[in-house]
Amino acid sequence: MVLVQGHGTYGPTKNLVSFALRSFGAFGDIVAVLLLLVLLGFLWWRVSQWTEVLDEINDDPGSDVEAYRAQQHLVTLRWQSSWTIWLMYFTIIGAIATAASFYFGFPISGLAVSQVITTAWQAVSVAVLVAATVLCRRLILMCDMVLDDEEERLTETVA
């Protein structure tokens, strides 16, 4: 172990932990966060489109084929939103691991400006992804609510 300017020990174990965390958290970078946000926006847009289609179909009760098609699209979008939320969870964990890797790999006083910026970005990423996860959960609930309403409408039509 090597003593670094009176800041305690800084040895190979810390380097190994830092490298492992940085490698594990590689998927929590800016590109992954931006792709997930674009994906969430696309899913939200598609759900709102198919919800509007169902609203128009409910005004014209003669087109059950279109209602079924819209329901199937909403079921698929709900499934995609469920997977997106898991991707967000893993990206949050990756961003936290990347931020933690800098504290294991370097003495606090020895952090370079780029490492401080990266750590700050990871903190912002976590905050943005937590908010996006909440929105994704709302999207799933919105799909569930629309599908339940449509199921009730179809059972009333049949009965």
Structural features, described:
This protein has one domain (2-158). Helices cover 82% and strands 3% of the residues. It has helices spanning 12-24, 30-59, 64-105, 113-158, and strands at 2-3, 9-10. The protein has a two-stranded antiparallel sheet. Helix 2 (30-59) packs antiparallel against helix 3 and helix 3 runs antiparallel to helix 4.
State the end-to-end distance: 79 Å
Helical stretch tally: 4
Instruction: Identify low-pLDDT runs.
Output: 1-8
Structural class: mainly alpha
Largest sheet: 2 strands, antiparallel
Q: Please tell me how large the radius of gyration is.
A: 23 Å
Number of strands: 2
Strand order of the largest sheet: 1-2
Any idea how many domains?
A: 1
What is the 3D shape? Answer: rod-shaped
Mean pLDDT: 79
Helical residue percent band: over 70%
Report strand %. Answer: under 5%
Order of helices and strands: EEHHHH
